[in-house]
## 1
Amino acid sequence: MLAVETLDLAKDYYVGFWRKRPRKALQALNLCVESGEIFGLLGPNGAGKTTTLKLLFRLVFPTSGTARILGKDIKDVSVHARVGYLPENPYFYDHLTAEEYLNFAAELFSIPAPARRRRVGDLLEQVGLTEARDVPLRRFSKGMVQRVGIAQALVNDPEVIFLDEPISGLDPLGRREVRELILRLKEQKKTVFFSTHILSDAELLCDRVAILNRGRLLGCGELSKILSLGVHATEIVLENPAPETLAELSSYTSALVQTGERVRFEVPEQSDVAKVLEITLRRGARIVSLNPLKMSLEDYFLAQVAPATEKAREKQARLGVR
Amino acid sequence: MRVATIALHTFKESVRERVLYNLVVFAVLLTAAGILFGIISVGVKEIILINLGLASISVFGLLIAIFIGIGLVSKEIERRSIYSILSKPVMRSEFILGKYLGLLLTLVVNTAIMTAGLYLALFYEKRTLALSDLNVLGAVYFILLQLAVVVGIALFFSSISTPILSAAFTFCFYIIGNFLADIRWFGREAQNVFLERATALLYYLLPNFGNFNVITRVSHGEKIPGYLVVGNSCYALLYITILVSAAILVFEEREFK
Amino acid sequence: MTALTPLAARRRFIRPMCGILIAAGFLALWPLQRSIDQLQGAQAQFADVLYLSSGTTLRRYCLGYEGLLADVYWTRVVQYFGRQRLAHSTRFELLGPLLRITTELDPQLLTAYRFGSIFLAEKPPGGAGQPQEALQLLRRGIVANPDYWRLWQDLGFIYYWDLKDYRNTSRIFRIGSERPGALPWMRAMAASVAAQGGEIQTSRILWTEIARQVDNDAIRQSAEAHLLALDAEQQITALNALLDRYRDQQGHAASSFAELVVAGYLPGLPVDPTGVPYVIGAKGRTILGPRSKVDLALLQ
C-alpha cells in the first residue's frame, strides 16, 4: 500500500482585496510515497511544500484533486490516528511544560493514562528533553521547541510522519540529532515525508525526492538515480607527472590545473578513463585520487530551477516590474 | 472525551494566564465597600453589598468572557498552535465545543469563588444568613446564563474575525441585547409598519439580555419567579446552541493559510 | 467506495445538523421570548421613570456621548408626550424635567426647544398647558443659541396665543426680527400686533406663515385648522350682518338661509370653509352646521 498518494492535487490562493486573483500555490501535483521510505519534498521558499502538507492535513482545502494517506481519503480525519505532523516553525502553548504538552497531545489520541505516561517519558528521552521536562515552553530555545514538535508528532507511534522543514533553523548539533532521529525512524520501518530547502539534508537522508518550484513538480525519483544521471566526468589528480606524460594525456583530458606539485584534470568520456589510467601507470606517474564526478543535487536543482527563475525574471522585466 | 481534553486544556490555560487574579480585585472591592458604606451610610449596607457584589460578578465575568472568548479560536490560529491539534484525530466541531466548554468552566469556577466571597461578606455584616439570602444565588445563576451566551457570541466572532473586531462586535451585541426591549418599544411607537416589523424581528433574533436583569430586584429581597428561572434557562440553552452551531459551521469552512 | 469510519461518518452530518439546530433554535426562541414577556407583564413595561433629574450631572456620566444621550432623551420626550396624549391623560408632569435634561445634555438641540415649547404651552388635552414652563425653556434656548431667530418667533407665539400678552408679543417679535436671517414678516408682525392688539388679520398672517414653513404634519394641520376657523369667523360676522339687514328690511327674522336666497340676499346657501352649510341658531345668529369640521374654539 502507498503511504501517501496525491492525485492532481492543486491549490489556488486568492490574493488582492477587491478583485481577487488566483495565485497558483500548487498545480496538479501527482506524487506516490512508498511505505517505509524517506521521501523528501524539495524546493525553494514559496515552492508549495508547506501548502502540500497543509492540504494533506486539511488545514487548507484543495481547489481540485484529492489525496490519500495510507489508502484513505484525506477527508477522513480518522487516518490522523496513524500519522504524525510537525508544522513549519511550530508553536505550542507557552504556559505548559514539555511533559504537559506531550501529555495533552497523547490525550487527543485517547491513549489511556498508564500507557500515556510511559510513552511521554520515552519520547522525552528520544528527543533529549528529559532534563527539561518541567520547564515551561516559553523558556525553550528554538531547537528545543522543534524537538518538542517532533516528539508530539510521534506521540501516537505513527506509521507515516510528516515533517515540515524539520532541520532548518537548528544549530549544527541539533541538525545532526534530527537527522539521526529520522534515520532511526526508517529503521523502525516508518515512512517519513519531509520538506526542506536544504539540499544537503535531502542528499544525506532521502530515498526519493520530489522537486517543487513555484507550485509545479519539476522532477521526482530515487535520489541515486537522479544523481547517477548526472555523472559527467572523472576527476583525476596526479603528483609530479613528467611533462611527456601530460602531453600524451592531453588528447583525452580537459584543461589542466596545476597546484604545487599536483596536477588536476577531468576526463569527460567514461570510455577514455581506462586508457588514461593505462598511460599514467605505464609512465610511472603517481595517482593521488580518482573521482567519478556525479552531478550534485545542487547542480540538478539549479539546472531545473534556473530556467524557470530566468523566465520569471524575463517576464517581470517585460512587465516593467523592478 | 477529546472535547473534555480540549476543555480542560483551555481552562488550564486561562488559569495559568492569571485570569483568576480578578478575584483579588473583587475581594478588595467588597471589603472596601463594606467598610466605607458602614461609615457613611445608614440602613442600606446590605443592599449596597449585594448590589455591588452582583454587579462586580457580572462585570468581571463579562470582561473575562469577552477578552478570553475573542481569543479562543483566533489566537490558536494566529499562533498556529491549531495546526498540531487539527492534525490529530480531532474534528473541528470537537475543537470548538471544547474551547467553549473550557471557558465556561473558567467562568463557573470564577463566579463560584466570587459568590462564596459575597456570602462571606454578607455573613460578616449580619452575623447570620437568612433563607431569603438564597435569592442571591438565583441572580448569580442568571449572570452565569448571560455570560454563557456572551462566550458563545465571542466564540462565534472569534472564529470569523480578528480579536479586536470580535471584541467590538461582542460588546455591541451585549449593549444592544440589553436595550432590545426599548428598541422594540420605539419601533412600536413609531407608528410605521416597516419599523415595527424590523424592530420586532431584531427583538426575537438578537440575544435578549434584558431577560436576565434581576440584580436590583434581588438586592431588595424579592424572589425570582420560577417561570423566569425555567424560561431563562431554556432561552440561554437555545441561544448557546445557535451560536456554537454557527461557530462550527463557519469553522468547518475555515482555511489556515 | 470505501466504508466510512465512524469519525468520517459523523463529520458528514455536522454541517446539516448545525444548520437544523440554528433554524430550530430561532424558531423555538420566538414563542419562548413571547411567553417570558407575557409572564413578566407589567415589569417589562417601559417605566415612566426619571432616571436622573439633572442633565448636567448626567453629562459627566456619559463619557462624551451626551449628544447621543440627548437624542435618546428627546425621543423619550416625544414618546412620553405621544403616549400621554393617546391615553387622553392630562398629566404631563415629567414633560418639563425631561425637556430640561434633554436640553442640558445638548443645548444646541433646537428641535427640543421648538417643539418642546409647543408641547408645554398647548392647552390640555392637546398639551401640558404650562406656558410659563414653555417660556423658560425658550429663554434657556435663546441664551444657548442667541443667533437663532426662530426661538424668538416661538416665544412671541406663546405670548400671543397662550398668554394673550400683545405688548410683550410685539416686543419679542421686534427683538427677534433683528436677529441675523430673520424673515421680514417678523417686523411686520411686531408692528401689526402692537397697533391692533391682536386682530384677526394679524392672526391670519401668523398662521399662514406657520402653515407655510413648518414641515411637521401635526403643527401644519393645526395651523390650517386655525386658518379655517379664522375664515369661518369672518364669514359668520358677514352673515350675521346680512341677517340683521334682512330683519330690518323685511320686518321679521329669517328662520333659514333659504329665505335669504329666495329674497335675493345670497346667491346660494352659504357653506363654511369645510363645505358644510351654515345654519341659523336659536338666537337668530349664524352658527356652524352640526357636521362642520371647523373648530371655532381654537380662536378663544
Note: The CA atoms of residues 105 and 152 of chain A lie 6 Å apart.
## 2
Amino acid sequence: MTTAAAGPGARYTWGGDEFLFVEIDEAMSLAANFRSNAMASLLAADHVDGVSDICPANASLLIRFDPDVLPPGDLEARVRRIEEAVARTAHPTLETRVVEVPVWYNDPYTNETAARFRANHQRPEGTDLEFAAAENGLSSVDEFIQRHHGSPWLVSMVGFVAGLPFMFQIVPQEQQLEVPKYLSPRTDTPALTVGHGGCFACIYSVRGAGGYQMFGIAAAPIFDPAQSLPDFKDFMVFFRPGDIVKFRPVDEAGYRQIQGEVEAGTFRYRQAPVQFDLERALDDPAGYNREILERLNGV
Amino acid sequence: MAFEILEPGLATTVQDRGRFGYYNVGIPQSGAMDELSAEMANALAGNTPAEAVLECTYMGPRFRTDMDAVIAVTGAPVDVKVNGRVRAQWSRLELAAGDEVSFGILQGGTRFYIGVRGGIDVPVVLGSRSTYGLGGIGGFAGRPLRAGDLVPVGGGAGALGGQEPRQEIDDGLRPRFEKEISVRVMPGLYDHRLTEQGMETLLGATWTLTPVADRTGLRYSGPEMEWRPRQQPFGAGSDPSNIVDAGYAVGSIQIPGGKEPIVLHRDAVSGGGYAMVATVISADMDLLARSAPGTRTRFRPVGMEEALAARHERRALLAQLWGTGT
C-alpha cells in the first residue's frame, strides 16, 4: 500500500441547479471514504457563502449550494482545488473518537420482525443471522456475531433518515462481512436495529421501512430529538462521519440495565478521542485496531 | 391564540420554507412542497414569506379559531367553508373568534395551504418550524395534526407592519393544477449507467404519477429502462441499478431495477444505493408537488443555463408577489 489515493481524479456532475455531486470512486474502500471526509472537512472550514449542506458519503460527496450566491463554476473550481490539496496530503489522518455501542445480538425484537417479513427474504426458514453466517461461509451464528463485534467499524456516512450511521468494518476486503439486502424492503424495522446490507452495517435511528438484514438491537438511543441524555446535550444526532464504532455484545440483563440508565437519564456512551491514521490502518489492520480499542480502556 | 383541530384531515402538517444545513446527518429540508402556493398564502395573510403555514393533503382539516384572525387558502382547488358557507380561495378572509373552517372535496392537485396572520407559532427546531415526520421533529409535536390539537397562532400584528396585505391573488399569477405537465430535468449523476435507449425512454416517454407519492418522493409508472451491464464495484450491491450508497440530491430521479422512476421531494431520504440519472430543476419542484396521481408527466432535458434562467424567472414572479425589487 503505497499511497492513500483512491484511484485517479474524482468525477464531477450536477444534481440539478442546487447540487454538486463528486464521485471519488465507484467502489467502496477506506481510502475513498477518507478522501470524501477530508474534502468535506476542508470545504466546511472555508465557510463558503452560498454552500448550505456538505454531505460526505461512503465514496462520494454531495454539496448543496445556492447558485444565486455562488455560481456553479466557481463552486466546482473550489472543490477541485480542495480535491488536489487532499490528494497531495502525504500522511492522511483524522481526528475522531472511538465509541463503544452495546448491542443485544439475536434479540427477540428483531427476530420477531424478521419472522413477520419472511416472504420478503431470500431464505424462508431461520433467522437473518443464520442466513448471514451461511452467506459468509461461517459455521455458526456465534462465529458470525464474534466477527461482527471483533473488529471496529468506521462511520462512513450518516443519513438515509435522521442520524442513521452507515459503517464499514476496518478489516482487509477479503474479511469484510457481505450479506445481500432483503429481496424487497420491509415496511417495519424496530428502532435501534443493527442492520447489514452489502458490506455496510447500520443502526436504524428510527422505526420504519428497511431492507437490511437484522442482527440485533442497540441498547441506547442514537437519535434523541428531546435531547434528554447528556451525550445529546449539543445535538440530537449522536454519530458523525469518521466516528469509530466498537460493538460490545450484551445479554438481556445487560440490555435491561442500560435501558434503565437511559430512562433515568444517566446513560453515557463510553468513548475516547483518537487520531485515525489511514496508512497504518491499511498496513496492519489487526494491530492498529487493537491499538485503537485500547483507548477505550479505563474510560 | 389557537386553532382547535376538530378533524385533522388526511395529512395536515406545519411547514415553512424548510430546514437547511442538516442533510449531512439525514435530516431533510422539509418545508412546503408547493412553495409558491405557500408563499401566496402568507402574502394574503399579511405575513413575510418565512411564516409557517398548514399544508393539507387531499382532505383538509376542520378547525375552530379562538380569536379573530386573518387567513387565506391557496393551492389545490377546494371549496373553503366558514361556518358552512363557501368563501373564496386565493383571497384574504377575516374570521371572528368561534368561526369554524372546513373544506370540500379537492377538485384537482394534491395540496392546499392555510396561511394565518402571525403564522403558525410552533417552536423553531434546528432553524425551522417545518414538520419532519419520519424523525418526529419540528411542526406540531413532530407529527401530522390530530383531532383535539390546539395549534398556536402567532400574536404578531402581521409582519408587514401597517402595510395593507393583498386582498387576493390575480388569476394570472396563480399556479395551474393540470393533468398533463412537462417537468424540466438536468441529466447527470449516474446517467452514464443507463443504456442510450434507457435514457431516451426516460426523456421521451409519458409517465403517469402513481398513488405512491408523498413528501418523500413520487413514483411514476411507464415503460422499463435498461442499465448498462457491468461487473458491480465492491460494496455496490448486485443489481445494475445499485451504486455504493451515496447522497441523494433533492429532486433526483432513481430507477430501482429499471422500472417505476422515483423523484425525491422535500422530505427526501438523504442517501441510498440506487443510481440517480437526472434531477428536476429547482424551479419545477412545485409542479411535482401539485401533481395528483394519474398526472401525465414528461421529463424534458435542460442544461444548467436553462435551469438558472428558469430559477431567475421564478424569483421575478416572487418579487412581483411581494411587490419588491429583489
Note: The CA atoms of residues 84 and 142 of chain A lie 45 Å apart.
